[in-house]
Amino acid sequence: MLTMKNRILAGIAAVSISAVTLSAFAQMPPGGPDGPRGHAPSAEQIAKFEQMRAKHQAEMHDKLKITASQEAAWKLFLDKTKPAPFDQAGRPNKEEWAKLSTPERLDKQLDMMRKREAFAEQRIAATKDFYATLSPEQQKIFDAEHAKMERHRWEKMEHQRHGDRKGPPRDGKPAPDAPPAK
To answer: Which region ranges are annotated with the description Disordered (predicted)?
Structure first.
């Protein structure tokens, strides 16, 4: 009898915790409508990004030593792997987002994810096509540069997620600027 009573109380507690969690989650504004930080990038930020991108492309072109016969494939690769423009179309503003029901918000989020997935598939296909035009030496350089870019992106993402926290990294090694352990 006592175990049945405990099970019922535990069940009620679990349902209550779940209900509170779900209601809090449903009220949270998603990162989607106004970007991850709640605002669209400024024209200055976009211009700075484009300058950095152009510089990186020029460096990559030089490192790969693109031949005249590869130049058309290089230009096609750059064209097809251009970052998607920051598109506010299809994204409701905060007031519109708040008016949507949970299923409507979820449908909008799913639609945005599908668009990002289609864009990613296009970029991957373009990269594979370009990669096939490279010599084995160029492929090694491309692989190394792409791996470096992924590491940089991962570190940036970790920094954004955790801020300037000075704890040990997940790999267990102390941070290079961390004070020595006592």
So the answer is: 83-102, 145-182
Residue 182 lies in a domain: no
Query: Tokens in use for 39?
Result: 């605002």
Does some domain include residue 136?
yes
Per the structure, the complete domain to which residue 60 belongs is given by 47-162
**pTM recorded for the entire structure:** 0.59
To the nearest 10 degrees (0 to 180), the angle between helices 102-133 and 71-80 is: 170
Q: Do 35 and 41 meet the contact criterion of CB atoms below 8 Å apart? A: yes
pLDDT at 134 exceeding the cut of 50:
yes
Structure tokens at 97: 């987002």
Helix ranges (DSSP H) in 28-135 = 43-64, 71-80, 94-99, 102-133
Domain count across the chain? 1
pLDDT confidence of residue 150: 81
